[in-house]
Structure formats: structure tokens, C-alpha cells
Amino acid sequence: MVPPPPVEELLPSAKREALRAQVLAEPGFYSPWLHLGVTTLFGGSLIVAAVLLLHRPTIWQVLFGVGMFLFSNAFEWSIHRDVLHRRRKFAPVLYDQHTPMHHMLFYTHDMSVRSRREWRLVLIPAFGIVAAAVGLLPITALIWVYASHNLACIFAIESMGYIVSYELLHLSYHLDPKSPIGSLKVIGFLRRHHALHHDPRLMQRWNFNVSLPLWDLVRRTYVRSPEEAFARDAQRKAVRATS
User: How many other CB atoms are found less than 10 A from the CB of residue 74?
Assistant: First the structure.
């Protein structure tokens, strides 16, 4: 088997830095704290409102929330693999912002943002959080009317909570590992999982979960090292060749 090319050959430093300078030089106002604030305050406010409306949830309603979390984890995995890494006609901008830009600027051994202005290269645009909430509103209303207000509240808490936590976790992986947040052990573990996905040789096949890698385990796309990924790819090719 021919060994994969080195990362520097796939992502030359000069090319990466030229793209970073080009993106950051784009005109227009940008406030990293406003960007993060809209995401957390808007999403957090909806979560708090839903919690206040929740009244003595039953064990089955709590289990509904657990099921929603598992569904969200699988949905995140699927969107990451099938939309962010494959250009689709219905949402080409998602691919364009992710694979040729985000993955070009940040790779396994260079994950940290240089400054807070680069948060815009990591966080979802603020309007995306609002759009997600508006898109989920009809589903929440239907659950409220045809099931129960508790289930509707749990749906809102879980869906918005997942989106906000996804954003905060993803940003934490791209902070300095020596920072107060970046140095946390749980963040270090999740960062290593995500950083392997940022290896251009692995990004199309491995470690698609950005939050907890549950669906990566289910779909057998979880790896702990490039060597493990290359070995599993070689094994898969050998099986196909003999079948």
C-alpha cells in the first residue's frame, strides 16, 4: 500500500497563511464577543424559558429527552459527513465554508485560533442559530398541541441546548490548549478526537462527531490515531479485493 502523503504536502503553510490573511482582510464589522453572545444568549434564553414552563416531567418524558439527544448526535454526524464534506446543490455554502476554508486554516497540529477575530472561522454565523430556532418552532408547537407541553419544552431544551453546546465545545477545541478552558481534561480528550478529523488525510472518513463521539462509535468511524485509520482503510481495501 502506498503511504498517504504528509500533511505539509497537502496543506502547505504558505497557502494556509495566505488564505488566513485574505479572509481576515475582508471588510466589514466583526465583534467576536457579540458573535458568541448572540449564540449563547439567544439560545440560552429559549432554554431557560422552556425550563420555566416545564412541570414535573415523568420518567417517560425524560427518556424522550434522552432519545432526542441520541437523535441529535446522529444528526450532527450525518450533516457533518454528508453536507459539510460533500458539496450539495441545496447548500453549497456550508461545504464551501467548512472543507476548503475551515479545514484549510486549522489542521491537526495547528488547531488554535491566532486571535479572537478568527472565531468567525469556527462559530456558526449568528443568524444560523436564529434560523435554527425558527425552523424548530413549528415542530415544538405541534408537540405542544398534539402531545403535551412538557414534551414540547423538553424538545426545545434538548434541541437548542445541543446547538449551543456544540458551538461552545467546537470553539473550545480551537482555543489555546494552555488557556483555562483549553486545559480542561475533558476538552483535551474531545480536542484530540476532533483534531484527528482535521488531518486532511482522515477528514472524509473519520471522527465526524464534534460533540460527544457516540455516533462515531456506532458507525465505526471513531479512530484514536492516523495509524489506526490507515490500517483500517488498508484492511477494508484488502477485504474488497478478495470479495
Answer: 15
